[in-house]
Amino acid sequence: MTPYISIVVPVYNEEGNLDNLMQRLYPALTGMGRPFEIIFTDDGSRDRSLEILKRLANDYPEVRVIEFNGNFGQHMAIMAAFEISRGDIVVTLDADLQNPPEEIPKLVAEMENGHDVVGTIRHNRQDSIFRKSASRLVNITTRKMTGMKMTDYGCMLRAYHRNVVDNINRCGEASTFIPALAQTFASSPSEIEVAHAERSEGESKYSFYKLIRLNFDLMTGFSVVPLQLFALTGIVTSLGAVAFALFLLVRRFLVGAEVEGVFTLFAILFFFIGITIFGIGIVGEYVGRIYQEVRRRPRFVVRRIYGGSDEG
Question: Per the UniProt record, which residue ranges are transmembrane (predicted)?
Fold first, then answer.
């Protein structure tokens, strides 16, 4: 039977959560009375995650497991599952149980109200102050840069209509952020609040560096505003430099030659150099993305698929 709902779960070193996840996810889906499938993608886990997933694929006919040939990242793990998913509604869910699987029926109901993308907002978020502050900064910056109206970019409990998923699959981008990419294809997006819980096992896979990388990917992948802002900064800086040069020229005629302002000039010079290096870095981000695309290397490598008719 063709599934109506596809659940996509990227997995990386989540051995402590997988059994608990399945014990809660499976009843939540069977209780909806709709045919479903669950697709796990093992993103090169170094613990027993793959072993547990293979057992789940053997125990549950609705489960399929994609085994990556290495670590390609959360979004590539989701993309691989998108390519083999069959449901009219595709729901993405993290394996850490911070987003309760019991919330999935709320997303499906919202999709059935006529929306093609349903985002979520974590209510009473159970994360550290650092993570909440970093996430808030990413959300605000991304909204300003891209113009997309998304409240919570970091929550991966989301639902997508088959048409949106098919369009995402056609893109073939080497680096992307799926919620933002889906938003560009959505004709009737929506957002709902969902519960949020503390992580009971393992640790978050997003370090401070990865959060910064995520923000750069969002800005450079969906907007040219950073380049425009840097160009504007360059114009303003140039005008300021001309005005300052005229001031120094007039001052030289009025006061005469002096050497007291040497260190001030050095400070101003270093400030301008800093702006230049920052701008080169932004340009480098865009050039790097182009470089990744033109190489046309595989976005991910699937070693094997377990479960269902694709086993072998």
Answer: 229-250, 262-287
